[in-house]
Design goal:
Elements (H helix, E strand, L loop, with lengths): L2 H34 L7 E2 L4 E2 L10 H18 L3 H14 L9 E3 L5 E3 L4 H6 L6 H19 L4 E7 L2 H4 L16 H12 L5 E2 L1 H7 L15 H18 L11 E4 L16 H5 L2 E4 L6 E4 L11 E5 L7 E6 L7 H4 L5 E6 L5 H7 L3 E7 L2 H4 L15
Parallel strand pairs: 5-6, 5-13, 11-12, 11-13
Antiparallel strand pairs: 1-2, 3-4, 7-8, 9-10, 10-12
Helix pairs in contact: 5-7, 8-9
Amino acid sequence: MAAPQHDAIVASRRRADLAVILLFVAVIATPGLGLLFGLDRTTISEAEMRELAAWPPWSWALPAVAAWPDKFQHYFEDHFAFRSRLIHWQTTFLWHVLRTSSSDTVIAGKDGWLFYADDGGIEDYLQTEPFTPEQLERWRLTLERARDWLDARGIRFLFVIAPDKQMIYPEHMPGSLHRMRDDYRADQLIGYMRGHSNIDVLDLRPAIIGAKKGEILYHLYDTHWSDRGALVGYQEIANRLHRWFPAIQPLTRADFDASPSTPSGDKTTMLGLIDRGKMTMPGLVLRRGWSAVVVDPEKPDPYGEDGRVATEIAGTNLPRAVMFRDSFASRLIPYLSEHFSRILYQWQNDFDIDLVQREHPDVVIQEVVGRHLYTFVPTPELVPIGLSGT
């Protein structure tokens, strides 16, 4: 082989090797450089439905120094550049091509439906661990102590159970999941309270099940109810409140117009997928306009997902309220707020007497989604007995 030809081949191979090396360096360096420059930065992973690891604070204490590398590794694994995009591509392929879920927290149901399996959802559906008598009695004590403490101060108390998606649409759950019982913990608690207490637990399921033939009340890829499902739940709550406060006249569907600029569900979807039905379904807007104004926080989340939300209607004699709630109440906020001169929505399951005393409400609403009856342990000791508590 002639020397010039040989030299050309060697040079070509060297260029090819150099290109491979540069490509390799670029691939391994891009995630770190992207993290350094803040590319693709986020705090929540919609696909995984969880909060991502926070930057680990530094401390010169020896145990903290030893633990810092592991914490940084968790942070890096959650935040390297293009991570969310890669996960989105993966989940999209697995769902649309293979019809399977990429996450243990999401169940692939029938007919293209997804269901949330975390936070007690799958355990409550399977009913492998129903309530024990001791657990039911603990719930009774907790609810009665809250009711009695409020009653001694002239404050009404309403306990509400919001239904999970699988409670309303069990026909779309996968047939491979075999339930141990036909009921839920919500049924067990309601039955126990009816037999051992005079507290009336408001179960929203009958009304929502009755309304589901008319339109979709939970979106295919959403774990929460849509604004239409929330409207039905709100109407049941408002009807109950009307018994105590005649000024509360529940809004009807005829009071609303459909608006494509208003969301019809929450801002996340399971697996981070695009729910076309959710995107094309117009939200509901009160025809006469909303009277209530959010006064806290200053820049509220449009989906009501702030930990603390307070709304007010100025210049009215409407009652005041406090609502201890979880994520299911986010879609209730626009509706309920129309009936109170001030209502504070506090994202927590526990009863908080200090907050109640600061707000001076006429009624306290405690809303709990069905699956939290599996994960949340009530604490009756948080509420003093009678008027002796401050």
